[in-house]
Structure formats: C-alpha cells, structure tokens
Amino acid sequence: MISKAPAPGADTSGDPYLPAHGNGGYRVRHYDLTLDYKVAPNRLSASAAITAEATQALSRVSFDFADFRINRVLVDGRPAKYLKRGAKLHVKPAKAIAAGTEFAVEVHYVGNPRPVGSRWGDVGWDELTDGALVASQPVGAPSWFPCNDHPSDKATYRVSVTTASPYLVAVTGNLVERTVRGSTTRWVFDRPEPTATYLMSVQIGRYDEVELTGRGDPVPQRAAVPPRLRRAFDRDFGRQGRMMDVLRRWFGPYPFGEYVIVVTDDDLDDPIEAQGMAIFGANHVDGRRTHERLVVHELAHQWFGNSLTVADWRHIWLNEGFATYAEWLWSEESGGPSAAALARDWHARIKAKPADVRIADPGVARMFDERVYKRGGLTLHALRAELGDPAFFALLRGWAVENRHGLVTTEKFVAAAEAQAGRSLTAFFTRWLESAALPPLPGA
Prior knowledge:
Belongs to the peptidase M1 family. Keywords: Aminopeptidase, Hydrolase, Metal-binding, Metalloprotease, Protease, Zinc. It is an enzyme of class 3 (hydrolase). Its cofactor is Zn(2+). Its EC number is 3.4.11.2. It contains 9 helices and 22 strands. It has helices spanning 230-236, 240-251, 292-300, 317-333, 339-351, 370-387, 389-402, 410-421, 426-434; strands spanning 26-38, 43-54, 61-64, 69-75, 78-79, 81-85, 88-92, 102-111, 124-128, 131-135, 155-164, 168-171, 174-181, 184-195, 202-205, 208-211, 221-225, 259-263, 272-274, 277-280, 309-310, 407-408. A hairpin with a 4-residue loop joins strand 1 and strand 2. Helix 3 (292-300) crosses helix 4 (317-333) and helix 7 crosses helix 8. The chain folds into 3 domains: 1-206, Immunoglobulin-like; 215-302, Zincin-like (2-Layer Sandwich), CATH 3.30.2010; 309-434, Neutral Protease Domain 2 (Neutral Protease, domain 2), CATH 1.10.390. The chain has an 8-stranded mixed sheet with strand order 5-4-8-2-1-11-14-13, with no helix packed on it. It has a 5-stranded mixed sheet with strand order 16-17-18-20-19, with helices on one face. The protein has a 4-stranded antiparallel sheet with strand order 9-10-15-12, with no helix packed on it. The protein starts with 25 loop residues before the first strand and ends in a 10-residue tail after the last helix. The longest helix is centred in the C-terminal third of the chain and has 18 residues, at 370-387. Helix content is 25%, strand content 30%. By secondary structure, it is an alpha+beta fold.
C-alpha cells in the first residue's frame, strides 16, 4: 500500500556529519532479522521485525533502507502504508503512535543486496568470489536491513541466516542454534549487548572453524579461515590468547561473550570492524605476522568503538586514536619498538603534513584521515606523560569499565581525565584536540 510522501523532518537524525542517516522520533530496542540467502545468484529474501519506542507522537516512521522490493509492511501486526523514496522507507501506521509507546514494525523484502555508495567508497553487503561479507562502517547497514542507521541508537539483535550447507555463517552475535535441513543450514545468532547498526555483520564462506583458545579460557575465541590459509593463519594469529590477556589487563574485562575472527578468501583493502568480530582479507595473512598491528587494532575496537560507541561521528578519534595507541602498547609488550619510539616516529611524520585537522572535530571529509588515527594515538601518549603511568592506565580501565555498552563523547573523556588527574587539563586538551597545529611531543 503506497501513501503520499511524508513532510520533511522525520527522516533525519540531526547528526552534524551525516544528517541523512538516522531518523527522529523513536529509539529502536530490538531487531529480529530473518535472512534466506542464495549465494550463486546473490539473492536475499528477508524480514525485519523492529521493536521501538516512540520519543514523540508519531503519525509516520522512517527507516534507512536500500533498494529492495518490499512485499508488505506491518505496524503492530496491522498492514501499514509505506513509501520507498531514495534511501528512506517511510511507514504510515493505521493509527498514530503516542509518545512513550512501544511499537513493532515488520518489513518483508527481497532483492539482490549490494553495497551503498558513500564518500568513502561502497560499504555494506558485498559479494565475495564465493560467499558474502558485510562491512557497514559508517553507513552500510541499510544495504541489508531497514534500520535507524545512527551510532547512538544501539539495540539488541537476533539474526537468523539460512543458506547452502557447504557454507559457514558468522554473524556478530552468540551462536544459539544451527539446524541442517536437507541441503541448507539455518544459523541463529543472539546479540544481547546494545549494538550500533554499523557494527552488525554477516560473513558467509567456505571456511574451516578454528578454536583459538582452550576450554576454560575466560574469553572464548574462534575463527573462520579458508583451508588454504590455515598454516599461515596459525602463525599470524598464534598470539591471540596472549593479546586478549594483555588488553584485558589494560582496558578491563572483555565486553562481549566471545571474539570471532574471519579471514575471507578474497583480498580486502582494510580489516573490517564489527561487534565481537573482526574480518581480515587473505592478503592480511602471510605467515610472518606482518599485519599483527592490525590484529591488535581490531581487537582494541571491541572496547573502544564497540562497547564504547561514539554519540556521533565528530568523536571518532575516541575509536581510532585508542585502537592506534593499543598497537603501540602491544608493540612494546611483544618485543617490538616501544610506544615512545613509535610516538616519536609518527610525530615526525604528522609534523611533515599540513596542520589542518582538529581531531576533536575533523569534519566529515576527514573522519578516516590517517592524522585522526595517529594524532589520536599521540594525544594519548602525551596524556600518559602528563598523568604518569599509574594514573593513565587507571584512566583507560575506568573509562572502558564505567562506560561499558554506552555512548561516549570527547567532552566526557576530558571530564574523566580531569577527575583522574584531580586538576584541570583544559590547556592540555586544547593543544592536542582543539588546535590544528601539532604540539611538541613530551620527552622527545
């Protein structure tokens, strides 16, 4: 059933960087996604049951959603009018929804999933040579399910995927059911922790299952790896248990029930971050631990980026700066160059570049600029010198534990650092976060 186009306003999050993604008037509590995927034709038949709470009176609701054929839409079990326009699905329930009311929207759809275009290239559901992957950061989630695509609207998930039995399926969640039915297998995953849409992922391929930890380890870790890469993978990820132990010592308890690594049989430009999961390309596995810094970077994101999620994209240095500094800490811990040596090296490299990025608010065009990552790491190294090691590591651990599964901002981190220091750090953070000019590195 088709309705007239809604008035503007309900289909924006108000995000200063990506206002077209996310929607106003409600908060999602839970997504229940049922996917039936045929690999060879890249055909997805699916339904999404979305439970949400209205934050204001609603005569209509909007979702971010890509180009699928929609078969029907229900609101609270009753057929609803809808309009698909551009990257938005507008739904008009038979009866207006009162503020504070919980409501349920059900969308049934079918089509050939493909990435959505963005200023950072194509992101979202993508075909592999033999399988599929999802890489949604920052705007790719609508490529496979209707959603409120903003990092601040974290929800729980249940995801069911049915596909041909030769394929292994990994979803960002705990595997709760696997049922073989003839030539197909149904995989069901539960994600009980609040999760941003861009951190949900589906991985499908002809993979071996590999256990990375023994029975009784506090954090189960497993992997999905192409058979041809098993030997090199065992070498490259052989320190995974030790890496988890060290990061837990620095940052506090691991925030999820397990950690899953997927290595695709195709090359990838960069590893992919997801909640409780990291995805690497075949080119990141060479048997020489060449890319181990990326391994620890993605693991650190489970604390900084996944459990602690930015309230909006202005604060992305809180994800990438922390993961970058984890690389430097791990290098020192594992016998490589010290964090101080890496900081000196990167300070010199960044100093040679134009001084035109303020990492507290880099602008949408520079969200993923290398300088946001490295200057973020340099800011933390300088803060370590400012506070001293005991207070600095206490701050990192307290920051991760106290904001577990929550939303964070730069202002909130500055307040936490000042509370740890017992004094104002305004001048310090003004130099390092608000100024485009690179400050001198302490001790250099």
